[in-house]
Amino acid sequence: MKFDPKIEPMWLSDDIGIRLFNWCLCIDEKAYNKALAQLAKEGKHLTYAFPDKGATCQFAMCNGEATDCIVMLVENEDPIENAVLLVHEAVHIWQIFCQSIGEKNPSDEFMAYTIQNITHRLYHAYQMALEHREKK
């Protein structure tokens, strides 16, 4: 079976310099439900609804630390707005990441490079989903 980024969450859990929690991007409710089902198999449960607009992050926590994150993006017609929303959600991932490693005063460069890396991965997953949709 081929990877379908429109309905299959692309978990982006590889390193960004320091090991991060598992995270994925879902651009529709079907992919979101699939990600929830995958987490439920591991005993992790999120009970949030897919948003009507914009974007949001949902974190699965264990002992006060994030283990997984689902980023949800409701696309709109403006590609710049979609990119800005992904950057916004990347900052939230970075904030939880800093909390999980006990970083209270990160350097400007650490913050900039980490957010850049997270944003790059989110945007790459988004581009894959768009390319897959165009092939259909």
Describe the structure.
The chain has 136 residues and is α+β, with helices and mostly antiparallel strands. It has one domain. 46% of the residues lie in helices and 18% in strands. It contains 3 helices and 4 strands. It has a 4-stranded mixed sheet, sandwiched between helices. Strand 3 and strand 4 form a beta hairpin. Helix 2 (79-100) crosses helix 3 (108-135).
What's the helical proportion of residues?
40-55%
End-to-end separation in angstroms reads 16 Å
Ranges where pLDDT stays below 50 over 5 or more residues in a row are none
Structural class: alpha+beta
Total strands: the figure is 4
- Overall mean pLDDT stands at 84
Annotation field: number of helices: 3
How many domains, in number, for the residues? 1
| Order of helical and strand elements | EEHEEHH
Give the biggest beta sheet: 4 strands, mixed
* Main sheet: strand order: 1-2-4-3
Radius of gyration: 15 Å
% residues in beta strands: 15-25%
Shape, principal axes of CA atoms: globular
